[in-house]
Amino acid sequence: YAKSAAQPIRSIAVLPLQNLSGDPAQDFFADGMTEELITELSRIQSLRVISHTSVMEYKGTKKHLPQIAHELGVDGILEGSVIRENDEVRVTVQLLDGPNDRHIWSESYERPLHGVLNLQREVAEAVTQQIRLQLTPEQKARIDSASSVNPEAYDAYLRGRYILANQYTMGPPLLQAKSYFEESIRKDPGFAEAYSGLAEACLDRWYSTK
Questions:
Q1: ∠ Cα 93 96 100 (to 5°)
Q2: Sites in the chain below the pLDDT cut of 50
Q3: Residues 6+ apart with CB under 8 A from 23
Q4: Which residues, at least 6 apart from 145, have a Cβ–Cβ distance to it below 8 Å?
């Protein structure tokens, strides 16, 4: 279901996805999916996307959308929820005209966990279509060529990302994050994001010892 936005959307905030799995231990997965969606949308050069650090301040917020849009200085807000059950993941998202609190578009996606990378890119492409932004050929090719990932590798990767997002200045947690990324690489040596996470964990670990 879709409507036209009251004004062109050229900036967006992805609010933290709600964990509807019924298990607080799965918060890392919902937060990780939020960060990955932000990363995907950030690849669109003509769209300004609010950072993961900034939007996490609104996790569980009761503020109204126009207030959030004003505070973050954005036209659009993407919000939703995620449910993970075994090796299946269901994501429901809706795009809103933030300043006017108007619904623009919503969709639900249900995929096996190994196809979660494609899911994230599908959402990003759907958002660009709804706000009528044109993808470059390179961006379109990247979405079309999305690969699968070993579910256990992706799980370990998101656990590592969760630590980096919340405890990036502390030595022991950074070692744990490094261990998760290394596990992810062992489970799926072709998973490029795990190498990126490992490099970031090692860099943060280096700075934390200075």
A1: 160
A2: 1-2, 4-5, 210
A3: none
A4: none
Rounded to whole angstroms, what are the CA distances from 181 to 38, 178, 189, 199? 20, 5, 11, 9
Phi-psi region of 79 (alpha: psi -120 to 50; beta: other; left: phi over 0): beta
Task: Count how many residues are written for the chain.
Answer: 210
Q: Are 178 and 202 in contact (CB under 8 A)?
A: yes
Instruction: Write down the pTM of the prediction.
Output: 0.79
Tokens 């489970």 -> residue: 187
Three-state SS at 209:
coil
pLDDT in tens, 107-135: 999 998 888 888 888 888 888 888 876 66
What sign has the CA pseudo-torsion 146, 42, 66, 72?
positive
DSSP 144: H
Q: Which residue has the tokens 């300043």?
A: 99
List Cα–Cα distances, 18 to 23, 169, 172, 201, in angstroms.
11, 26, 28, 26
- Reported as half-sphere exposure (CB side, CA atoms, 13 A), residue 76 has a value of 26
